[in-house]
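Table S2 (continued). Query chain:
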Amino acid sequence: MTGAVGTVTGAVGSVTGAVGSVTGNVGGNVVGSVGSVTGAVGSVTGAVGSVTGNVGGNVVGSVASVTGAVGSVAANGITAASIATDAITSTGVAASAASKVANQTWDTTASGHVTSGTFGQALGGIRAGTAQAGAATSITLDAGASAVNSFYVNDLVLITGGTGAGQVRFITAYLGSTKVATVAAWATNPDNTSVFVILPFDAIPGATAPTASQNAVAVWDELIAGHLGAGSTGEKLNNAGAAGVPPTVAQITNGVWDEPVSNHNTHGTMGPNRR
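Corresponding output:
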């Protein structure tokens, strides 16, 4: 059929030109513009203003709007470039869709998101995996955990899934050869279904704590100016220094010997032994 047709009722093999309205099935192809289609269309090549119902075959070209179901979209059928700014708004997304997006975001494997400077890197723990076993006061980490003894000591191990989920304990000892981390007693012993994450706490894995000598030096080398709270040792030392010349050895000696014995009667000290 070639030319303009007002109304067609029944099956048409092929139409070239403009069609005002079609009621029924179009078995072949439509080339050109169609004002309205009610029923099933096998294939459309060109532009379609509006479709109400189902399209059984393929649409090649642009579609202004679709009311109804779309069977499938080919891979890369929708690209970023094909979505206009504000094409999808919050009111255009169903609550269930938003929930699915949120679930997918939180359930995505963290190991795939560790790019420097990202939230994935910042939120990531020292180690995450599934335990090999567990006992009353221990958990056997995954086979890929560190082989260095004491590597995770002072860190937190949190069970996030499987048996014992929700429990958290400090690691007090770790044997690299067996991957066994020692902890305080569990409420529910973990097992090979327990999913864990190790979080840094008061120590850096592999580092050592400062020695007593280092702590003492740091204390004595600390500036008094930063510690002048009322009644503090810093305040008293600062006031003593501001008073002028420090006491001589003789003054200190006299002060010791002239101190009343009654002020020093603690059992086991020189005070009661020299009364």
